[in-house]
What we know:
By secondary structure, this protein is mostly helical. It contains 17 helices and four strands. It has helices at 5-11, 25-29, 35-50, 57-82, 90-105, 120-142, 148-167, 169-172, 200-224, 226-236, 238-243, 248-270, 284-297, 302-319, 322-325, 339-357, 361-374; strands at 179-180, 185-186, 189-190, 276-277. Residues 6-12 have low confidence and may be disordered.
Amino acid sequence: MTVSPVARSRRSRPLRGRPELYTSYRQDMALLNTRGKRVSVLLMVLVAAVLPMLLTDEFLTIAATGMVFAIGAIGLNLLTGYAGQVSLGHAFFVGVGAYTAAYLSGDPDGRYLGLGVDNVLIWLPAAGLVAAATGFLVAPIATRLRGLYLAVVTLGLVFIGEYVFSEWRELSGGGGIGREAATPILFGNNLARDGASYTEEQKLYWLFLVTLIVLAVLARNLARSKIGRAFAAVRDRDVAAGVMGVELSRYKLIAFTVSSFYAGVCGALMFVGVGQFGPTQFGLLMSIQFIAMVLIGGVATISGSIMGAMLIAALPRISSELPALFSFISTAPNEHPNIFEIEQVTYGVLIVAFLLFEPRGLFGIWWRARTYWKSFPFSY
Length: 380
């Protein structure tokens, strides 16, 4: 009995009110496998593209920072969420990307090392590739360990990186001075300066948005591929995965390399708007921030990484409103408790709260709300 293409198409659609329930592998593996997803993603991209025309520069900077954070969070989620390799050294690879971009874009005749290659289409992928190469070199050591031992080893990378960045003054400028970030020149236009038609914040926002969309789609496709399924097998039960023929060392190596690439791209873009950065910024606090983005947004989800990154990026702005609500919080750095201390404590509070009450993070909250309304009035 032959089945018509129309009937086959109808059978491959998910049942109404039951998301993620399919009768076709092809439909299940599609990137945007429902009409609702295609429409919603298109609307989100369009809204994100026109936001620079609607928001003030202050809120635009927060959104742009969140998108850069999201790139690094996606990389860490591929390693920790999908492959199950706990890493506390993400800040080290972010620093490698930042200094690679600064070195390539820096003035050859300036105070610090530089090649004068300020084209963003060159130093941006180069920063990711150098960070990926560093991750490739570190991975053989890290892949011999797992769990707490792996976390401690990757944490050691942060302290090693801080020391190297601080002492290599020709590259970094030293601990207290720092150096200029990469100069974003695209088609002869300096994106870090106000132009005749668009401001600096608007141009950088569009650059970050395009980069995030490209890397998020690549990460989503990687998670759906053979490599992504191998990551999940290693994460869920590495001994059983090895018995079934999954090469553990190979896929752990791939996970570290890809994660480091995303971290390098994140570092290259992170300080472009600020214009200045120093080696002390790539410390333990930055690694904790990225861990918080993954846990708060949702482990093993690309969209959850973006949600968590946006919340962490908006946290300083939210914290700045706290002194008006709580008189005991000071805005002066030399008084305690001050707004900066409260902001750091908030990371821990959010991590603990989400792990206890919503382990799937912001993505889990959105998923439950979506499932409720799609199955209404039979939401039980």
